[in-house]
Write a structure and sequence with these properties.
It is a single chain. This protein is an alpha/beta fold. The protein has two domains: 65 residues, Chemotaxis Receptor Methyltransferase Cher, domain 1 (Orthogonal Bundle); 194 residues, Rossmann fold (3-Layer(aba) Sandwich). Helices cover 40% and strands 19% of the residues. The strands form two sheets. Strands 6-2-1-7-8-10-9 form a seven-stranded mixed β-sheet, with helices on one face. Strands 3-5-4 form a three-stranded antiparallel β-sheet. The longest helix is centred in the N-terminal third of the chain and has 17 residues. The radius of gyration is 21 Å and the shape is globular. The N and C termini lie far apart (50 Å). The structure holds S-adenosylmethionine. S-adenosylmethionine binds next to loops. It catalyses: L-glutamyl-[protein] + S-adenosyl-L-methionine = [protein]-L-glutamate 5-O-methyl ester + S-adenosyl-L-homocysteine. It is an enzyme of class 2 (transferase). Keywords: Methyltransferase, S-adenosyl-L-methionine, Transferase.
Length: 278
């Protein structure tokens, strides 16, 4: 305990909460400390308490805070994760949007992956939308992928994945949308083809910010497997802010463990995890 009565781990959890909204349970603090041990050594400090002191000082610590965020976020993701959401996207959300836009020569479908991690959700969306184009639907599309972790965003923009990450991608899509090279430096790796990459933009965005510099007519927002890390009031605020970026008739999609979190006038539940803006 410090003189003020707050233990160092409480102050650490509060710092993480204020930076990211992530409510770290006390039980995870030890695991996080293990992840940060290298940073303590890199600064030549004796312990986590001293490291926390440096972080809280703030001055010139912006880059270090970015590293802390990269280290403490859980970035688990995969292509076609919770695949029924992608069926919904092409079989319902897209046709509805195109029907509404009749008359327009080439409507543009806008999708936002709002906790994108390294991009699997964004590229899965791009693949299924590109497939709809191949089947003859006349539209263009743009995918915005945002996350708080700079490291994940860099990976997403690079679009290089381990070949073992493709096990959930149908083989014909692997052939069409991923390329590999014989060069030994990229053995076992694949890269998303440029024709798909050009539809997807990666940007840094902290869901805790009060406003988001994003269009307000997004057709579908994925907000999956991130609300679980926030406390109740933050969950509500994030959902309300994101809802204000959904086009009328558009959708907000959360993870299967998160459907109970979304309770908001103006959002109608059309599936357990899918909410339509009314
Ligand atoms: C478990 S991943 C989910 C990835 C993807 N949506 C999926 O379902 O596969 C959670 C992501 O949320 C990001 N995240 C956590 N707090 C955030 C915040 N305050 N703002 C933006 N992204 C955040 C993490 O960096 C991480 O990449």
């Amino acid at each position: 305990m410090t003189a003020g009565g707050t233990s160092y781990s409480d102050r650490f959890r509060e710092l993480i909460r204020s930076l990211t909204g992530i409510s770290l349970p006390q039980s995870k603090v030890v695991m996080i400390e293990q992840r940060l041990r290298k940073r303590v050594l890199a600064f030549g400090l004796s312990d986590m308490e001293a490291y926390l002191g440096q972080l809280l000082e703030g001055q010139g610590m912006e880059e270090e805070l970015r590293i802390v965020i990269d280290l403490i976020t859980t970035n688990t993701t995969s292509f076609f994760r919770e695949s029924d959401h992608f069926d919904f996207l092409v079989n319902e959300a897209l046709p509805k949007r195109l029907a509404q836009a009749k008359g327009a020569r080439k409507p543009r479908f806008k999708l936002w992956s709002a906790a994108a991690s390294e991009g699997a959700e964004a590229y899965t969306s791009a693949m299924v939308l590109a497939e709809a184009q191949r089947r003859g639907a006349m539209f263009d599309f743009a995918v915005l992928a945002t996350d708080i972790s700079q490291r994940m965003l860099e990976r997403g923009a690079e679009a290089v994945y381990g070949a073992d990450q493709l096990s959930t991608v149908p083989p014909d899509l692997v052939k069409r949308y991923f390329m590999s090279s014989r060069h030994p430096s990229v053995a076992g790796k694949v890269r998303v083809v440029p024709e798909l990459r050009r539809h997807v933009r990666f940007r840094h965005l902290n869901l805790m910010d009060e406003t988001y510099p994003v269009d307000r007519d997004v057709d579908l927002i994925f907000l999956r497997n991130v609300l679980i890390y926030f406390d109740g009031p933050d969950q509500e605020r994030v959902v309300a802010r994101l809802a204000s970026h959904v086009a009328p008739g558009g959708y907000l999609v959360v993870g299967h463990a998160e459907s109970m979190v979304v309770r908001m006038d103006g959002l109608k539940q059309v599936r357990p995890t899918i909410f339509q803006k009314v």
